[in-house]
Amino acid sequence: MDRRTLGDSDFEVSVFGLGCWPLGGGSGWGEHDTKESIATVHAALDHGMTLFDTAEAYNAGRSEEILGKALKGRRDEAFIATKISPSNAEPDTLRAHCEASLERLRTDYVDLYQVHWPITDYSVEDAFATLEELQEEGKIRAIGVSNHGVKQLQEVFDTGVPIVSNQLSYSLLSRAIETGIMPLCRERGIGIIPYMALMQGLLAGVWASLDEVPAFRARTRHFSGNRPQARHGEGGAEEQMFAALERIREISDDLGLPMAHVSLAWVAAKPGVSCVLIGGRKVHQLERNLAAAEVELPSDVIDALDEATEELRLKLGPNADYFQGSGRGRIE
Question: Which one of 58, 170, 195, 322 is the catalytic residue?
Answer without folding.
Answer: 58
